[in-house]
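Hey, quick one: can you model this chain's 3D structure?
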Amino acid sequence: MCCGWDTSAAAHALYLREKWTGKAISCALDWMHISKIWCTVVRLFLAIGIGCVCTLGCAPGLAIARSAQRPPPPPALHPSVPLAELRCGQYNVGVDVVEATIEQPLRDAWNGAGGGEAGRNAVDALLRRKPVPVVIGPNGQLHLVDGHHHATAIHRVATDPAYGPRFPDYVYVYVIDDLSAYSGQEFWKKMLEGGPVRNEDCEKIGTLHHQYLWPYDRGVLQDPSVNPPPTVPHLTDDILRSISEWARIAKGYRDVEDWEKHHRRYLFFLEFFFANYLRDLVYLQGGDWEHRGGNAKAKHIFKIESGETAQDATERLVATAALSCRDPGALKLPGWTWAADVNADGRVDGDDFALLLSAWDTGVSSRYRMPTSDINQNGHIGVNDIAQVIEKWGLGTDK
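Sure thing. Here's the predicted structure for all 399 residues.
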């Protein structure tokens, strides 16, 4: 009953109607002394007729009984839930990512409509097109399992005085699982185990599976039965979650879709795996990282050099992070790929060779945009990098 359809009463009504209808027809036919062959034929035609009438909507009992096989309402009809009422499936978000990529479309929708009621309607239309998946927990509590950054962006803009109280502070949701029968540690165990991947119509996507909970708070394992994840307004910043996403964009590891193709597993929390891995490897001084989940004892310490901006230093750090994601220490993480897979698409081929040629002899700042082209990590693109692509040619990460 994932999508909330209850058909037991309708099915019972259908059973009784068909039972007594069948008896009445049988008695009438026997009374008329129709031969056994003609009796069967007449019953068949009557059954077809009843089925056609029901299909056309004249038998609501059957229509409701069949609704169990229909998808739930489209996203535009999914219920809205205030963000303050949504329990999360994680403890942190990457605030830098939220600010850089997610907030602006919301602000644009509001401002483009001129704010006020028109702005609210414009943002609402945007939210309807992107409902988020939730799980029903004990006492009917809804638990968000994906879209935390999206929800955080909404809350941040809604609480910005420049936008006022009319800005929506809610999301549209669709239910992918009902775990309300569990409580305490058993419930959180089920959240960690997760379940099948479902789309917005609550239909299973192949054999894909994902967990519903990321149990780490800035890299520290939590007992959610003692310290459960917060509601959306109280999610905290993890700077390594932002760095991890930018390392993925820089081709440090493969995206979710590629992981699905090779391993038939879908991960809501892919970037968090690499955030925890990178926590001991990279750190930026002067970026308030000590209060944002950073580790001042990390292997690679970066400073904002003279003449550099914080953005410049972050680009250097992300380049190192992306290369570090290719190291053997990350081999067992989802999305890991060969160093020779420059494009991080799961296969070493001509695309990787072309990227190496395009990065050949480029300046250091240009290489930061595609750091994985420095396969042997010696600071420049050369024949040794080309040789590694040729050696691994045709090799996929599923081999």
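One thing worth noting: Residues 8-69 form one domain.
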